[in-house]
Amino acid sequence: EIVLTQSPGTLSLSPGERATLSCRASQSVTNNYLTWYQQKPGQAPRLLMYGASSRATGIPDRFSGSGSGTDFTLTISRLEPEDFAVYYCQQYGSSRGTFGQGTRLEIK
Amino acid sequence: EVQLVQSGAEVKKAGESLKISCKGSGYSFTTHWIGWVRQMPGKGLEWMGIIYPGDSDTRYSPSFQGQVTISADKSISTAYLQWSSLKASDTALYYCARDYRLDYWGQGTQVTVSS
Predict the structure, then answer these.
(1) What value does the mean pLDDT of chain B take?
(2) What distance in Å separates the CA atoms of residue B95 and residue A17, rounded to the nearest whole number?
(3) Residue A91: Cβ-neighbour burial (10 angstroms; 0-12, 13-18, 19+)
(4) Mind listing the pLDDT tens digit for each residue in A23-54?
(5) B114 class by beta-carbon count within 10 Å (0-12 exposed, 13-18 middle, 19+ buried)
(6) Helices (H) and strands (E) in chain A, counts
(7) Chain B contact for A13, CB < 8 A?
(8) Given A91, B56, B95, B107, which residue has the most CB atoms within 10 angstroms?
């Protein structure tokens, strides 16, 4: 089973700043099949990125994803108030997916 | 519009059985996987398993293999997650979502199990 480790656990930033979230896999993710999700309190997760770097429908272009193999990054170029939430990565390159433990993005 | 609509909240006692559902609409149900995700109170997301309704091919996370059963009835575009004997530790919010990339999500089903 592929283990995903996200860092940092909590990120404290101000609106307008740039956020960089990391997701590291215990082994190479096949075809870079990695997704990122945003979850706000009381809501279901929302898909942001798939295939490591493709934005899902309706996702603003301030969100971008990069990386390959075992190291992946989600970048939010300029934080808006609505971006403060918990972010998860997930790999779906094996026949069984796994999630990272999440990064909480909080307002500084 | 793609929609996944899950069954309502459940309150059960330990040892009881339970089956929750997830009905898909707005797309071809038989040609897309349906996955299940657990979220325990205040915790992160856990990938439980996934089913292809077209042929019922099912894969489980090692953590959930033997603990739950995933099934689907393609005639009514509905996937299921079931337990034969609930434990208090099964208390959680359960989501269904479409495909391995989990692009569309249900609203979640809260399952509460008392001991």
Answers:
(1) 97
(2) 32
(3) buried
(4) 999 999 999 999 999 999 999 999 999 999 99
(5) exposed
(6) 0, 11
(7) no
(8) A91
Is B50 within 8 Å of B102 (Cβ atoms)?
Answer: no
A55 shares contact with chain B (CB less than 8 Å): no
Residues counted in chain A: 108
Q: What is the 3-state secondary structure (H, E, C) of chain B?
A: CCEEEECCCEEEECCCCEEEEEEEECCCHHHCCEEEEEECCCCCEEEEEEEECCCCEEEECCCCECCEEEEEEHHHCEEEEEECCCCHHHCEEEEEEECCCCCCECCCEEEEEEC
Taking CB atoms and an 8 Å limit, are B47 and A95 in contact across chains? Answer: no
Residue with tokens 């075809």: A31
Nearest C-alpha neighbor of B107 from the set B92, B115, B96: B96
Task: For residue A18, give how far its alpha carbon lies from the nearest alpha carbon of chain B (Å).
Answer: 24
The residue type found at B96 is C
Of B44, B59, B108, the CB nearest to A96: B59
Which residue of A6, A37, A38, A47 to mutate against B (max B Cβ within 10 Å)? Answer: A47
pLDDT single digits (tens) A67-77: 999 999 999 99
